[in-house]
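We modelled the chain as a single entity of 86 amino acids. Its sequence is:
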Amino acid sequence: MAIFGSLADMPLADLMAMLGRRSGVLEVFALPGKRQGYSIALDRGKVVWVREGQRWLDSLEARFALQDLLRNQEGSFEFTPGIPPV
């Protein structure tokens, strides 16, 4: 079952805590000042990869993107459970 909502209602830190050790892909979109959203692959709660639009982020870029998302309280999200694609 997909989980979706607004970052205003559930900030990313709370969402990640709720997801716990789940696996799947978290899409974060409709971010202010950004044309493209982020895809975050989780494997048992650990971040496997981060993509901005269609561009894969290296580990440093991914860290900065996640920090930015943690500070941001605007936008929407959808989590689709399952084994994340590699």
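As a brief sanity check on the tokenised model: The mean pLDDT is 94. Residues 59-71 form the longest helix (13 residues).
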